[in-house]
Input
Amino acid sequence: MTDQVISFSPAALQRRLIISAITVSVACVVMSLFFLGVWFAPNLQRILITILWITLPLLWVLGAVLESMRQSKTKYILTKDALLKEKKGWFGSTTSQLYRYDTINSVNSKSRAKGSFGSVELIFEENNSLYLSGIANPDDLAREIKRRAADARSSIRVDNLHS
Output
């Protein structure tokens, strides 16, 4: 079994960014109408609306950049014995977490856009869970993880019989 890097779907990120852009636009329009409807001095109305239309889109851009950086800094790898989560931090540091297949109780997947992207949830024996979102082909990934978990559990049982 070779290591397999789990790929994120660019369509998932694009969808989240489009939905958030629409939300910010609607919020700007609604708040502008509110400022126009409430009695303020005309100059104050213009100042508030200008600040609103500059601040909210800039905050959206900042959020979009941070979200795309977050997605590119996290990597999931299916190794022979476990799922490895590597997250790059500031100044080149990397943290790794290992999730053994034999501790997985269930694997759930949810697909969007006709199965091209979605999420996978892994539930472990200790009732902990790991949620992978924006994953390309989540149903295929869930099947692969289930297969590896079943193989890991069966190899443990065989090893216990021989000892």
Q: What stands out?
A: The longest strand covers residues 104-112. Strands lie at 4-6, 74-78, 82-88, 94-100, 104-112, 117-124, 129-136. The helical segments are 10-37, 42-73, 138-162. The chain has a mean pLDDT of 84.
